[in-house]
Design goal:
The longest helix has 26 residues, at 3-28. The protein starts with a helix and ends with a helix. It is mostly helical. It is built from four helices and no strands. It has a domain at 36-97. Helix 1 packs across helix 2, helix 1 (3-28) packs antiparallel against helix 3 (68-84) and helix 1 (3-28) runs antiparallel to helix 4.
Length: 97
């Protein structure tokens, strides 16, 4: 396994996990009574909150709905596509080397 393959695998897992966690955060916004400090919800909140907290200062809620998790799903999906997609940078490096 080359360094590019290993990097691609690790990045793929991390980016997919983050997208998955942000999708769960979107679902959790439908239930405002959920305490994000309690297990199992803190497993979702702890890795996503460092991204969401600064974003909330820039993007205010629309109609009372926090849209920042949706924005981060888009950002992580874009990063994943740019790096690991069919024409992604790491995919192309893997085919060259």
């Amino acid at each position: 396994m080359t360094a590019v393959n290993l990097t691609s695998l690790i990045l793929s897992v991390i980016l997919a996990l983050m997208i998955f966690l942000f999708i769960f955060r979107i679902v959790l916004t439908w239930y405002p009574q959920v305490e994000l400090t309690r297990f199992p919800f803190n497993v979702i909140a702890v890795p996503t909150e460092p991204f969401l907290a600064p974003s909330r200062k820039i993007v205010s809620p629309v109609g009372g709905v926090d849209i920042t998790p949706i924005i981060w799903v888009g950002i992580f999906s874009l990063i994943r596509e740019i790096l690991l997609g069919q024409q992604g940078l790491l995919t192309m490096m893997n085919h060259i080397g």
